[in-house]
Amino acid sequence: MDKQIKPESTVETVKKRYLFFGEKEVRGRCPIYEKLALQIAADLDLISLIATFPKNKRQPNLLLASLRKFFKHVPSFQEARALMLDNPEPLTDIIFSHSTQTNEPGRCATLLPLLCQLPQPLALLEIGASAGLCLIPDLYNYRYGAELLTGAPAHPEFELACVAGAGVSIPKKLPEVVWRAGLDTNPLDINDAEQRSWLEMLVWPSEKARLQRLQASIALAAEEDLHLETGDLHTLDLEKMISKAPQDATLVVFHSAVLSYTLETKQRDAFAERIRTLTDYWVSNESPVLFSSFGCDRINERPGSDFLLALNGKPVAWTDPHGASIIAVDHSTDVQAASP
Fold first, then answer.
1. How many Cβ atoms are within 10 Å of 160's Cβ, its own excluded?
2. 205 with 252: CB under 8 angstroms?
3. Cβ(31)–Cβ(206) under 8 Å?
4. Residue where a domain stops, chosen among 70, 97, 124
5. 112: nearest Cα among 317, 330, 337, 333
6. Cβ pair 145, 164 in contact under 8 A
């Protein structure tokens, strides 16, 4: 592969991304990824190589999952380095043909308190839906401390557990969803063994319980006729999907851990302006640094690698990227207060 020379700023940006992944995202959760990510971050040759990849192919989780797919195990740093520097094409073939589409159903536990506050019934449209596992929040079992909500009575052993902080209203019942659809540049088919395998590969190797949760979610979703379409959120594809939503339900357009992979900052800001004209309820669950109009001013409040949950551009809560916790942005303000 032709190695292009990249400006130092790009190399430094990639290095910081791998440092953040190792020091914040996987620390305490996946030691083997933590060690490997930090070793990669400290190796200028590897970071310089990654900086030559297309911008949306530089994510640590995509690289590490691709390494696992190639080696059939998590490689040592020496194995990974040798492959990447001496014979990178087999690895880049995987990276360039796959995407970071971690379809984490646990995020439904942090979306649920907000969804339950909106006028029912709901019509859900997810941007970046992947395989659609976050489109069935009404079908999961949830546990918030001592509180249990049951959506899958046939699967009592399967629960999405979430620690809710002060100021978060725990739902008393699940939302009523009458329509659900997803838009993705590359929707995944959970009935396809290869695509299911890739979803599982994106789960960090030490997180056995999370893998079991993903597999249980796939089994539940397979029972539903999920409507997923191929399209881009910054084209008329989004408007076409919105036009299909029933008029007698509350349309909620939502996305989680998507925009950092798909758009530049100016495009994200333009999207934020545009989406407000298309729906009364826009739910964003993303990194706080993605939009210049909100979130950036709260970066010093960010707990670890948490996402910022927002309704119509108004911050609501900090949420764990995998749905393990939700903390109100201001403990004196209930989640309900974020409704327009």
1. 25
2. no
3. yes
4. 97
5. 317
6. yes
Q: What angle do CA 70, 211, 101 make, to 5 degrees?
A: 60
Domain shared by 235 and 312, yes or no: yes
d(C-alpha 313, C-alpha 183), whole Å: 21
The 3-state secondary structure of 266-307 reads: HHHHHHHHHHCCCCCEEEEEECCCCCCCCCHHHHHHCCCCCE
Asked if residue 1 belongs to a domain, the reply is no
What is the signed CA dihedral for 277, 283, 268, 128, rounded to 10 degrees? -110
Residue 28 gets the label, from left (phi > 0), alpha (psi -120 to 50) or beta, of: left
Which residues span the domain enclosing 85?
8-97
Last residue of a domain, one of 97, 113, 146: 97
Give the range with max mean pLDDT: 25-29, 37-41, 184-188, 219-223: 37-41
- Asked if residue 271 and residue 169 are part of one domain, the reply reads yes
**C-beta of residue 200 within 8 angstroms of C-beta of residue 214:** yes
**How many angstroms separate the CA atoms of 115 and 107, rounded?**
12
- Predicted confidence band at 250 (pLDDT cuts at 50, 70, 90)? very high
Contact 317, 168 (CB under 8 A): yes
14 contacts: CB under 8 Å, gap ≥ 6: 47, 50, 51, 58
Residue 41 lies in a domain: yes
**Cis peptide upstream of residue 156 (ω within 30 degrees of 0):** no
CB atoms under 10 Å from CB of 282, counted, come to 22
> Helix and strand tally (H, E) in the chain?
12, 12
Does residue 186 share a domain with residue 58?
no
* 215 inside domain: yes
Residue 290 shares a structural domain with residue 153: yes
Coil, helix or strand at residue 238: helix
Q: Are residues 188 and 265 in the same domain?
A: yes
In degrees, to the nearest 5, what angle opens at C-alpha 282 toward C-alphas 281 and 288? 145
Q: Backbone phi, then psi, for 6, in 5-degree steps?
A: -105, 150
pLDDT digits (tens, 9 = 90+) for 286-333: 999 888 888 888 888 888 889 999 999 999 999 999 999 999 996 343
